[in-house]
């Protein structure tokens, strides 16, 4: 895929929602914005991570806030461009590439909007290989790349630039600003060189998103099971099915700019007579089968509708939904001591070591 056209956007959105582990924002919102931007400005060139020049100037763009709020408080295309232009002006550098901070529903498509508006190529990579709730939780943090200077902009036109002592403080102050901006805002941060991007980012993310989305679409067109197609593809990454069941209870609340809560599933088919509890903070963090943890961050815990194959986000969980829960390994760098300290279960308050996905 040398460029992203309107034809590709639905597949990317669908696949990004799967890799987003329940978070990353509503893919429908990102799809609307991206369709409009590509229709107006034309296809977006897709640049392989390995081909970036050392001195390229790469700028990730994303949406920050609680997914539950994003459903009702829609961003504008102008807001996306404002965040990128604000940081570029502050840095005094000429941008060469836009990038994705994470693989998530809206946050894999917001960069498409920025790239289309600015006439720049988009890097086929992201900073996580999945979605995480806090902005310091990216692989560039492990390589000493600073989150700031960082721009933040709301839909009213308010904007600012933060320059913090470390990436955890960037999360803390940006989260406070996001809450004041209505619990969702557009950000641009982790400006890096091409050499830094090649070292610290996860390659091929958008290509994988498009592939997963196409598998779901094609299976439905051929009247086959789309979940089976996704599981088969993720098995090549050592992923596996954890559970199949019906949502019987959801407790969800928006707290300090996050969607926090848990969902309880009652088993179906081979899992009849058992239960699964999914604990989340924007993204699924821990899966428990009959009270025992069976998967956790930093690995991916993905929820798919059993019939359509569409990913179900944490803000979209509803009583009665029939889901298949899938687990897949995270980028190996997340399982280093530094990666686990940054985004492992204990960081989120769970008294357990990471539970790796066995292929």
Order of helices and strands: EHHEEHHEHEHEEHEEHEHHEEEEEEEH
What can be said about the biggest beta sheet? 10 strands, mixed
Percent helix: 25-40%
Question: What is the helix tally?
Answer: 11
> pLDDT below 50 for ≥5 consecutive residues: which ranges?
none
Give the N-to-C terminal Cα separation: 29 Å
Strand content: 25-35%
Q: What's the gyration radius in Å?
A: 19 Å
Using DSSP, what is the number of strands?
Answer: 17
Helix-and-strand structural type? alpha+beta
Mean pLDDT over the full residue set: 93
Dominant shape: globular
Keywords summarizing the entry:
single chain; 359 residues; alpha+beta; ten-stranded mixed β-sheet; seven-stranded antiparallel β-sheet; 11 helices; 17 strands
